[in-house]
Amino acid sequence: MNLTTLITHLANFAAPAMILALCLVVAGRFWVSNKPVSIIWWAQAAINFVVCLAVLLLGLWFFGRDGKMATYTAMVLAGATAQWVMGR
After folding, report:
1. What is the mean pLDDT of residues 25-44?
2. What pLDDT is recorded for position 33?
3. CA distances from 50 to 5, 25, 54 (A)
4. Is the CB of residue 13 less than 8 Å from the CB of residue 56?
5. Cβ(20)–Cβ(76) under 8 Å?
6. Which of 1, 29, 71, 80 suits 49 as a labelling partner, its CA being 20 to 30 A distant?
7. Nearest-CA neighbor of 56 among 12, 5, 3?
8. Residue 34 has pLDDT above 80, yes or no
9. Cα–Cα distance, 59 to 30 (Å, whole number)
10. Which long-range contacts does 52-61 make (Cβ < 8 Å, 24+ apart)?
């Protein structure tokens, strides 16, 4: 595996975590629009990305392969919980 293929595989592994992190921040702005924001949007997205990526890595370790629906479900729940905690 050359460097370009490795970078492509890592980017494809992290892409669901990045997309979910950004979607959670945008959705969080609509649901909690009357409260002042304590953390700026890109910091919230970064925290959500780290949480979601950690869940993906745990799922890869636990199941031994990527792409299990249980891992994606756990990623959504962990990301939503992180966004909820930051929005309080």
Report:
1. 81
2. 65
3. 23, 14, 6
4. yes
5. yes
6. 1
7. 12
8. no
9. 30
10. 52/16, 52/17, 52/18, 52/20, 52/21, 52/78, 52/79, 53/14, 53/17, 54/78, 55/17, 55/79, 56/13, 56/14, 56/16, 56/17, 60/13
Residues 14 and 38: beta-carbon distance below 8 Å: no
Residues 49/19, Cβ–Cβ less than 8 Å: no
pTM: 0.89
Q: State which amino acid sits at residue 66.
A: D
Are 17 and 75 spatial neighbours (Cβ–Cβ below 8 Å)? yes
Interacting residues of 83 by C-beta distance below 8 A, sequence separation 6+? 24, 25, 27, 28, 44, 48
Write the pLDDT tens digit of every residue in 35-82.
Answer: 666 788 899 999 999 999 999 999 999 999 988 999 999 999 999 999
Q: Which domain holds residue 70?
A: 3-87
The per-residue pLDDT for 56 is 96
